[in-house]
Amino acid sequence: GAVVSQHPSRVICKSGTSVKIECRSLDFQATTMFWYRQFPKQSLMLMATSNEGSKATYEQGVEKDKFLINHASLTLSTLTVTSAHPEDSSFYICSASWQFTDTQYFGPGTRLTVL
Amino acid sequence: KQEVTQIPAALSVPEGENLVLNCSFTDSAIYNLQWFRQDPGKGLTSLLLIQSSQREQTSGRLNASLDKSSGRSTLYIAASQPGDSATYLCAVPSGGYQKVTFGTGTKLQVIP
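YS: structure for the whole thing
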């Protein structure tokens, strides 16, 4: 149980375009989803926290107008990287949890490469 | 602000050896600690979750201990195997409900 999927697993795009990454909880209702970014040889850094039906809360230094997060349902959150640049190339991982639980369940990640 | 450090950053051991990975955190007011495994280019796999009321947790060849007062946790891997090669991350709650801070990671290589 508690499976989280991400789509796509890998995406390559041109600089200036926008890319949407989906995060789905397959067998549970995720009241909260988290988005992380991981640069090579570094640990995961939290970008934002989203609660279903509410606006996402962004961590300091993360541009909310660049990284658009939507959590419109209890099983789906999306991260859109707008006007992507090469420095946005990274590994993006989402996680999901439900109310009153300590545990986050992680997706398999999405490798974004911006040319 | 919670800071989580893992030592060593990288470790290479021969197959069959027992090993210990270390995790230290600055804010001891935590309610749990998790250990994860990450294979190259992959997401995270949860290994063990220790509640603050527990001293240790075991799963197969893995044993994790938690000492809140000293801000330390260790992950003990017995009889290491090449399949154990991965990066191991610890994570502690910080800065809000359900939020966690990840450690810097230990990259383990088990040599056949």
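YS: worth flagging: The mean pLDDT of chain B is 92.
IM: good catch. Also Chain B touches chain A through 23 residues (CB under 8 Å).
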